[in-house]
Amino acid sequence: MRTSYLLLFTLCLVLCDMASGDTFLTSLGRRSDHYNCVKGGGQCLYSPCPIYTRVQGTCYGGKAKCCK
After folding, report:
1. Residue 26 sits in a domain of what CATH number?
2. What does each C-alpha distance from 48 to 11, 19, 20, 34, 52 come to in angstroms?
3. How confident is the model at residue 30, as a pLDDT?
4. What is the domain extent for residue 32?
């Protein structure tokens, strides 16, 4: 009985993680756009990029800009 509860709990955790989408794919080895931006020396901004920087990509699923 205990084992079945543990399996059900694990299944619920996996399905909840899959529902968010991004975290499930990230856990499989695909990095989020925010991670790639920051690792490349950029910063994610919802506002326009500051002077002397330019847009290099997107962050947060295309909702923000990656400025370098």
Report:
1. 3.10.360.10
2. 42, 31, 28, 16, 12
3. 74
4. 1-67
